[in-house]
Amino acid sequence: MPLAAFPKCYLDAMIVKKTLSLEQWIADAATQLDIDGLEFYWGFVPRDPAGIQKVKDCLKQHNMAMPMMCYSPDFIKPDSAERKEEVEKQKEVIRVTAALGGKFCRVLSGQRRTDVTIKDGVKMAADCIISLIPYAAEHGLTLILENHYKDGFWKFPEFAQKMDVFLELLAAIPRSPNFGVNYDPSNTIIAGEDPIAMLEAVKDRVVTMHASDRWFEGGTAADLKKYEADPQLGYAKILRHGVIGKGLNDYDKIFSILKSAGFTGWVSIEDGEDASVGMEHLRLSAKFLREKMAAHGLK
């Protein structure tokens, strides 16, 4: 089972401050981590043919695959013209992902706007995603719907953050070889729900996974409800994000379920908040995951 890494703790350096280039990240990760590939984030990816080729050459030089593109479409918009724009943006992401050699491209529902009902939001997101599946197929890609919390550049959290809404949306999208789930256990913790219950509910549709971990520092699960009262708040500070295997997620149970479901897809490390220890934490997370995957026959 292949292992990738996502530069979560370096996004600010790569996108906002621009103190870390994509090529440098590829080189650093390839030489310091026991991984097979790198998950990209749309915010730091070049769009022009020359830039794409430069990145492809860098990946090849370091023997790294680029399996997954992390993108955050926002389909929860009452205006149909605005939803159409979001669909067209996602198509561009699909094209660039394919050009880079990627096989999986993330989709989300969108932001949890207060003027959109659950029923209407599910239909908005489902209609948009369904319309994109044939386009993904044309480009040899699989769209992956993540049980997400909130894109870092969004105002509101994910519309389908809660398990019941996520499952309702998933049920509204027909099964297809070009559509599946990107399972993230930590996002279920953020939602105040059970990661194992979520996995059991979606295991037969999981095609990729974000490996991450969370733990409480200065608070409890009950305190998360206070943050839910204000939908504009970001990640709760009481819920820390770091080295995989040090937190609340039961990876023995997770990998046991995935093994029984026949999962063989990419696992991408989404680890860390602090760039100053980012590479060391990624190294420790990769080591932990390699050992756990081997123990469960997921090599």
Estimate the helix proportion, in percent: 40-55%
CATH homologous superfamily annotation: Divalent-metal-dependent TIM barrel enzymes
CATH topology: TIM Barrel
Outline type: globular
Trace the largest sheet across and list its strands.
2-1-11-8-7-6-5-4-3
The CATH class is Alpha Beta
State the CATH architecture: Alpha-Beta Barrel
Distance between the termini: 5 Å
Q: What's the count of strands?
A: 11
**Mean pLDDT, nearest integer?**
92
Strand share of the residues?
5-15%
Structural class: alpha/beta
Give start-end ranges of low-pLDDT stretches. 228-234
Give me the secondary-structure topology.
Blueprint (H helix, E strand, L loop, with lengths): L2 E4 L4 H6 L5 H11 L4 E2 L1 E2 L7 H13 L6 E3 L9 H20 L4 E4 L10 H21 L3 E5 L16 H9 L7 E5 L1 H6 L4 H8 L3 E6 L2 E3 L7 H5 L10 E3 L9 H10 L6 E4 L7 H18 L4
Parallel strand pairs: 1-2, 1-11, 3-4, 4-5, 5-6, 6-7, 7-8, 8-11
Antiparallel strand pairs: 9-10
Helix pairs in contact: 4-5, 5-6
